[in-house]
Amino acid sequence: MPDDPALLYVGAQKESKGLDTLFAAVEQLPNVTTHICGDGPYANVTERRASELDNVVYHGFVSEAELTRLRQESTASVVPSIWMENSPLTIYESFAAGLPVVGSDIGGIPELVADGKRGYTFEPKSTSGFVEAIEQILDHGPDMRAAVLRWARQRTIETHVSNLETLYTG
Q1: Which of 87, 94, 165, 170 suits 143 as a labelling partner, its CA being 20 to 30 A distant?
Q2: Which residue segment(s) compose the domain that 44 sits in?
């Protein structure tokens, strides 16, 4: 767990991922470092905003080793999508690394985050709601780490296959 608060966004650089809301929110949280990883058509906007905001670091595409390091140094992951994400892989990966998630209350995100259990949700495109959720995660996120890891350990591929076998074989 890092001493200094840090957020991690991992995903495609697309407007639909809610990056504008992320930039607006972290602009109001100058003492929170935000790491952004990924590539895509919105990368030029991300690069520009990172150059304008002292607390935003754009890494572009990173190796698995670098991503592991960033997860270890982060307080929480953020998933600020503005479109109907079904079941974002980045949430599962975050939980497996012991990171609670701040995510938009849209699509399948709130079911995974379970507001107050494995992170916090906010209304999509709501900068004030996002800031409030980030502040909550900074206060309570460390207490959620054990619950997040426990949840992830119960949802391994082996467990899923075993459950399916039980379901279909009776």
Answers
A1: 87
A2: 6-169
